[in-house]
Amino acid sequence: MSLPNRSSRCLLPFAMCLLAVATHVSADPVPVRRTQGTAHGFLILKTLEGETLAAGDLVQVAHGNRVTSRLTFHFRDGSLDDETTVFTQSGVFRLLSNHHIQRGPSFPKPLDMFIDAATGQITSRDKDGKPTENHLDLPADVANGLQLILLLNLDPTAPPIHVSMIAPTEKPRLVHLLIAGEGQDPLTIAGIRHKATNFRIKVELGGVTGLVAPMVGKQPSDIHVWVLGGDAPAFVKQDGQFYEGGPVWRVELTAPVFPPSSSAGK
Questions:
Q1: Within-domain flag for 265
Q2: Among 50, 63, 66, 210, which one is most buried in terms of CB atoms within 10 A?
Q3: 65 part of a folded domain
Q4: Do residues 89 and 110 make contact, with C-beta atoms less than 8 angstroms apart?
Q5: How many domains does the chain contain in total?
Q6: How far apart are CA 18 and CA 190, in angstroms?
Q7: CA-closest candidate to residue 161, choices 129, 122, 204, 118
Q8: What is the DSSP letter of 260?
Q9: Rounded CA gap, 67 and 143, in Å?
Q10: In a domain, 17, yes or no
Q11: Within a domain: 35
Q12: What is the pLDDT of residue 260?
């Protein structure tokens, strides 16, 4: 049997010692400052070098305080990223369910995970459709599929907050997201200058994994989301990974383009 290398022998005892003094991360509920309604947005997914990967749709339908949001990306190579989130917005945002599917050549490992936030039941299906059941005691602030909604309701000048998230690992686990505003960046819309708040979302793994991951290069990249402020904040851009160990991709708004033959009067 081969022995671990020197760096591994030093790393593991160090991580175990740190774990003994690690503290539990408390999470913060996000109050509803702006209720969500019916909406349809068009998105584009690119590499950081500008290559177009997928076209996206965000469709949101509200029935009273219950909202269903579906974010879908159809990739040029036939891959699919499809996430449906159901939540309530009575006082604070509460997740009811989240169903996230990823499949196709753009994703090394297929994902099909359904979260029932009320019961803590998590159902994952492999590429052959075989289900695996897991249970977690979920806090009220679990935020799978809700990150953008929460950012639209945060005060960018307020102190950083924590929310919880179920990571779609081989055995689903609860992690924390640290969300903080990091100042404003300039942009233009139709030639008019604006500023958007740059929110940083850091995934905090916790436990031995959280202590070791940054040292061995497995810490997820921070996610950056830009939000245009004002009375009705709006999403502008996001840079982040779509899966564990994946490249950083960019999501931006886009608009429909009509062919010249569809002009009025023709």
A1: no
A2: 210
A3: yes
A4: no
A5: 1
A6: 52
A7: 204
A8: G
A9: 14
A10: no
A11: yes
A12: 84
Q: Residue 256 is which amino acid?
A: P
pTM here? 0.84
Distance CA 225, CA 201 (A): 8
Average pLDDT on 80-94 reads: 97
Tell me the one-letter amino acid at 204.
Answer: E
User: What is the number of other CB atoms lying within 10 angstroms of the CB of residue 77?
Assistant: 9
Segments forming the whole domain that contains residue 243:
26-255
Q: Where are the alpha helices (DSSP H) in 57-179?
A: 147-151
The partner residues of 87 in beta bridges, in order of sequence, read 67, 95
Distance CA 221, CA 239 (A): 10
Distances (CA, A) of 229 to 179, 203, 213: 16, 24, 34
Alpha-carbon dihedral sign for residues 201, 202, 207, 213: positive
pLDDT in tens, 23-56: 344 455 689 999 999 999 999 999 999 999 999 9
